[in-house]
């Protein structure tokens, strides 16, 4: 009898173990009415599945209301097509302030074609209507207590998030913090364009992350790499690939920074589309009511297409960006090295971080409105940046007064393309940026290969402005005849520059040089010109600083 009892217990354990491998939450009493709180029963299903050795917890068709649930080791949370995990609108149902949480667990996944809906809009306060029209989609305000990150995974390893739909986040949608070996594939993110701080995917201090085939529509940064948490700033955010994505936002599309207390290394962004929202789209309608979309045609567009920012001491190295199409991004390329000492430090560091070894190629950007930029601060340099095979079509129409504006260093300012000037229309209060195409300041070893920049109407600003730049190489830069200012390229204190295969279709001087440090400039043109036809030099530039070669 004793042996028989043992066998019964043994087979009972085996049966439980096998059943736990594939659990349907209905078996645990989940109710799909969108009203009954299912947090405890779904958590119980996840816990039992993990304890028994792991497996799949299935969410079937229906609306299942939940508060905070935790993912556990070796569990796949699978949402069938038509299944919805619906975030509670009662803040008391959240502990901590996330809808789905994973902390230091391994071999976890969220899969299926179902939906996680945070219902974040129920925690927002509308923007101030007295300020209409806004220059872009307004950001509404969080209530004092709200769920914040909808899906947050911290210190997790071997993570897969595949094919699910994430919508209605209160704040950041998918937050990966200190994770390793992560795959995010085929997911969609849908948040209204007025959502406060509703980033799409935030990758903070993670390593070995692959993001592919995602469609993100949100107000704040679409995909952003950060490193700000004191617990993880020693950990390099590295080996990150992002490819085959469609990004729609009114903030930054692909961004490294702003929070940059830890380092970033080996980052790839490729084969993706950045697009502008339309005012008739369902998720844009509320935001569009706050802006004059006719006068401000870029109010529903991205602030920047590509933004690489180190302003809190981080070292950014090894970034490759290629095969990107941008429609309407205000600033196609924004690279900024600063020293604001923000984040947890709240003090200016003795030295800035670094940005170096960056390659950006095969970019098409049209309907731009702010010049791209590669800038640092006095005493520090952005280094080793290559721009190749790039076409930018941007707004023109600015006058001599605009062209004469001198830009401050803004060493401690928040990094944003708007820091250099006005964006949308002449009704804006700020001055416009005094460069139409590309601004380079405090940089070393910068290469422009086969770059084309066109302004849409006559413009008095220089197309390219370079200040305190060493080792500048420009080959086959093209533009149109709408450059009408004092020069096409304006150089100050530029050293060791080689400018090749140039033939601008304009009658104004192609180059202006100033600054006592200007030296070792070689210019090669496709047609024969006299120096005085092409080049202007002020009195500070030595006679032999510039050499012209006609082929």
UniProtKB/TrEMBL annotation:
Which keywords accompany this UniProt record?
Glycosidase, Hydrolase, Signal
Q: Supply the PANTHER family for this chain.
A: PECTIN LYASE-RELATED, PLASMIN AND FIBRONECTIN-BINDING PROTEIN A
Name under which the protein is recorded: Glycoside hydrolase family 28 protein
One GO BP annotation of this record: carbohydrate metabolic process
Q: Which Pfam families match?
A: Glyco_hydro_28
Which interval of the chain is the signal sequence? 1-20
Q: Name one GO molecular function term.
A: polygalacturonase activity
Q: What family is this protein classified in? A: Belongs to the glycosyl hydrolase 28 family.
This protein's source sits in the domain of life called Bacteria
């Amino acid at each position: 009898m004793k042996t028989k009892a043992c066998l019964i217990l043994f087979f009972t354990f085996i049966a439980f173990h096998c059943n736990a491998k594939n659990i349907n939450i209905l078996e645990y009493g989940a109710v799909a009415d969108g009203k009954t709180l299912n947090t405890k029963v779904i958590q119980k299903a996840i816990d039992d599945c993990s304890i028994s050795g792991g497996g799949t917890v299935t969410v079937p068709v229906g609306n299942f209301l939940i508060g905070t649930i935790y993912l556990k080791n070796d569990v796949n949370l699978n949402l069938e097509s038509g299944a919805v995990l619906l975030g509670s609108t009662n803040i008391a149902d959240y502990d901590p302030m996330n809808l789905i949480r994973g902390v230091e667990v391994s071999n976890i996944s969220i899969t299926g074609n179902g939906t996680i809906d945070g219902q974040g809009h129920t925690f927002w306060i509308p923007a101030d209507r007295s300020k209409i029209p806004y220059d872009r989609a307004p950001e509404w305000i969080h209530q004092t207590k709200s769920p914040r990150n909808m899906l947050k995974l911290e210190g997790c390893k071997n993570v897969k998030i595949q094919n699910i739909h994430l919508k209605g986040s209160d704040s950041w949608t998918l937050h990966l913090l200190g994770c390793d070996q992560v795959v995010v594939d085929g997911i969609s993110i849908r948040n209204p364009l007025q959502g406060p701080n509703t980033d799409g995917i935030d990758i903070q201090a993670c390593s070995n992350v692959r993001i592919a085939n995602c469609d993100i529509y949100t107000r704040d940064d679409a995909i952003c790499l950060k490193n700000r948490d004191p617990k993880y700033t020693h950990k390099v955010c590295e080996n990150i690939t992002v490819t085959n994505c469609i990004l729609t936002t009114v903030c930054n599309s692909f961004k490294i920074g702003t929070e940059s207390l830890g380092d970033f290394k080996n980052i790839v962004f490729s084969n993706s589309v950045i697009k502008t929202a339309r005012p008739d789209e369902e998720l844009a309608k509320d935001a569009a009511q706050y802006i004059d979309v006719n006068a401000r045609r870029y109010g529903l567009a991205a602030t920047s297409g590509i933004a690489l920012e180190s302003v809190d001491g981080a070292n950014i190295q090894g970034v490759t960006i290629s095969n990107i199409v941008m429609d309407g991004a205000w600033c196609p390329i924004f690279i900024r090295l600063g020293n604001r000492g923000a984040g947890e430090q709240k003090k200016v560091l003795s030295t800035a971080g670094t940005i170096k070894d960056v390659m950006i190629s095969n970019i098409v950007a049209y309907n731009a409105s702010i010049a791209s930029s590669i800038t640092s601060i006095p005493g520090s340099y952005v280094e080793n940046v290559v721009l190749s095979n790039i076409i930018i079509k941007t707004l023109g129409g600015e006058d001599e007064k605009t062209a004469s504006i001198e830009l401050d260093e803004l060493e401690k300012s928040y990094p944003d393309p708007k820091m250099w000037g006005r964006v949308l229309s002449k009704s804006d209060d700020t001055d416009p940026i005094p460069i139409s195409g590309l601004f380079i300041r405090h940089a070393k070893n910068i290469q422009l290969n086969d770059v084309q920049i066109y302004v849409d109407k006559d413009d008095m600003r220089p197309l390219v402005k370079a200040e305190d730049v060493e080792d500048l190489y420009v080959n086959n830069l093209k533009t149109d005849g709408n450059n009408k200012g004092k020069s096409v390229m304006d150089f100050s204190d530029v050293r060791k520059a080689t400018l090749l295969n140039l033939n601008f279709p304009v009658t104004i001087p192609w180059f202006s040089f100033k600054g006592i440090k200007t030296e070792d400039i070689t210019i090669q043109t496709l047609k024969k010109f006299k120096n005085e036809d092409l080049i202007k030099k002020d009195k500070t530039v030595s006679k032999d600083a510039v050499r012209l070669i006609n082929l």
